[in-house]
Amino acid sequence: MGITENHFVLMQPPMTFDVVPFLLGQKCAVECSEFQPTQPSMFHVIPRDGKKEPVSIPAPGHFVFHVGNAFEEPDTGYIVFDQVESSESLLSIDNIDKTKPLWETTDFAKLARNTFKRYKLDPKTGRVVGSTTLYDRCSEFPVVNPEFVGRPYRYVWSSIPPTTKTNGALQGLLKMDLETSERWTWFPEEYEFLSEACYAPRKLADGSFSKEEDDGFIVTYLLNGRDMKSEFVVFDAKEIQKGPISRVPLQDFIPHGLHGTFVPGLAFDLDKAKRASKLFTMAEKNKWNEVKSDFSGLGANFLFE
Description:
9% of the residues lie in helices and 36% in strands. By secondary structure, the chain is mainly β.
């Protein structure tokens, strides 16, 4: 979802969902989803004040996971909406060997390649008035300075694979200047993988946070798949191409993940962290967090056994 000064913007890919086998516990959610490439995608523009009716704007069919940012042009009234999109659904599991880990069977070269794309939406006429590809190579998890969410912005940071023409495992970090089209990248060793990057603002001597858009830090986790170790890494948001300015080895191995977030001032005391760690270990041993495809939302799957 994108948010602007006056609107929420939801992107709906052309997906259908067969709810019956999901509720009966016969299939997982992904198996019940089907991408319809010949149908349009829809941008749903919803006024934040609730005084006007939402507007649905059709666009050529495409699949979307993540939104970069959105803002309004005061002179035209257009909504600028930036997102990572692909021509095919990345949720398909038709060709996946369910008996093996994804990383052993996935052929990334056969997956649809993401692109970072900008749309201009006219909520008055209900039309897409323009679209531009901002980055034509694969990228994911775009992040901006939180102070610029819903406002015109210049910089975006994303996770990227080492490949240039195909999809690939996300390993490196990209910074883009959307005004000058300059790009900077950093890649770790071939056996290392970055998780989703988060922006942390720089705190000034007076206790306030810097207002400069890229005067902060990019923080994330780095997985060493060879040694099965993890690090917490920090980049200078201005110069990510120079690599981490801090690398903190972690006692525990953290698997390669999807999403992260940074909250200023949030910290846990050591005792609470230890208790949480013990609970997590217990959950892992007892598989309390295991999601099974035979789970029934109706609790009626026993009728079909």
